[in-house]
Here is the input.
Amino acid sequence: LMRRGAALCHAGLLEQASADFELAVADYAPKEAVQTHAAPSAIGVAAEKAALRADALVVKERLTRVLNLKAEADHLATAALSAGDDAGAGEGGTVEAAAAALAAYGQALDLAPCHVPTLANAAAVALAAG
Here is the structure.
């Protein structure tokens, strides 16, 4: 699970990687009582488990950032597209809103280049903006 999760991270597939890391943490590194007088080998294993939990947290935080940026971009895109549908809307506001949405999608894609929902929405806004 860890190798696959790492490969998925490298590919930018954070949702799948996060799921693999969560399973690995649940199987290998569940939170447990800390032993104060553990053998050296147990301390090494505890350190590995702590590192695994930390890695899983990093992936989850990145995924959260990607999803937050996508949600922000979706909101901006909705505003841009609905402004374009309004008869009295000015062209400038629509173009600026579409550009802001594309910038937010770009930030999300910088973090997860293969996040398909973000790619699809960015492409739709780019096509709609012309």
Q: What stands out?
A: The radius of gyration is 21 Å. The chain is about 80% helix and 0% strand. The first helix runs from residue 2 to 10. The helical segments are 2-10, 14-28, 40-85, 91-111, 116-129.
